Amino acid sequence: MRRVSGAGYAPSAATSFRERMLLVVLFITVLASSVAFIEPSPHDALMGMLAVACLIAGVRFNRTLVMMMLCLVIWDASGLISLINALDIDKTVQYAATSIYLAVAAMIFACLFSDNTLERLTAMRIAYVITAVFVSLAGIAGYFHAFPGSEIFAPSGRALGAFKDPNVFSPFLIWPALFLAHRVLTQRIGLVDLGALGVLLVGLMLSFSRGAWFHFAVSAMVMVALAFVTAPAQKTRLRIFGLSGLSVAALAGSVVVLLSIPSVALMFNERAHLINSYDVGQGGRFRLQELAVTAVLNFPDGMGPFGFATAAGLQQHNVYLQAFLVYGWIGGIAYIMLLLSTVYVGLRTAFIRTPWQPYLITAVAAFVGEMAEGFVVDTDHWRHFFLLLGIVWGCATATFRAMRQARAARESLRTA
Known about the structure:
Layout lengths: L12 H19 L10 H16 L8 H17 L9 H23 L2 H27 L22 H7 L1 H13 L4 H16 L3 H21 L3 H26 L2 H10 L13 H14 L8 H6 L6 H32 L6 H17 L9 H33 L1
Helix pairs in contact: 1-2, 1-5, 3-4, 3-14, 4-16, 5-8, 6-9, 7-8, 7-9, 7-15, 9-10, 9-15, 12-14, 14-15, 14-16, 15-16
């Protein structure tokens, strides 16, 4: 496995203040990302401040990001064209505007993490872990009615924290959980990390989101596999193997303890069935997806936002069908290309040993899990999805630059 040093970045006295300001704005922006029960959210407003801070700090666009930008532009441009078919439906313009905003946010994060990568990722990670732990604690408190009024964080018996939907709240917790788990498996076992990881996993469990449980299982397997393959020594591989087994046993034990609580067991029994009344029947998820496939074939230019839901009565709950239904065939293909190219550049660079390799490994793992969950839910407007997109492309860009610098340094020594 190749090893390269960090991408060159040595801020001068003239830029150090602007860089510190950027880190502060980045930290606050990510810290606010768990408050998502209103739209636009505080995080959305802060993204504007982050964009300004990036301009002041001199954040640049790297040519490695052209593929990502091209896919996003085609995807959103197709969505604007398909908007013509749904102008008479409420909130369609807002939907299209949100798609464009999230694409811009993904590009901001990708450009941001391309330089001074480790320091900026560290600021993002600390803020993300803190806010994920707090919102998870809120969801847990709401589920168990820990204080008067706490039920607002878990209405209908499912934890959702400060989100509007438990199915969005729970995937939000997965990347920080993966990062903490990766550090425990590969570096050190810290009580703070274990405590934070435990809180996140309990919050994930109490969301009772089958899609998120599946997402976490897929992401965890990908993360462990990548950590094992990229481990620097056989000793580390043995540590990962052993601790992974212990982790699975501890997780199973924790689930058993939670299931000893009658209300948890009742909801778990209701939600754990792979197929229930929500999935089957004339108005079930699977029937709607069958209708959505027919609609995709009949509307090559797309039905526009909420077009299928207006015609069928409900959403089809599949982001890949959503990509074609809302954005048309060209937009749908662009979306698929965005996902595939992201996984490609992520896996291509995840095996290069860099200071930010743990961030890249866990982001790729979370992204793959989110792609898998996309078969049962619409993820195209999840804000943390676009953050993951930015992390993968930003880290990959930094790795490519570091490789070029290392290659140039070797050639310079050879010719000296």
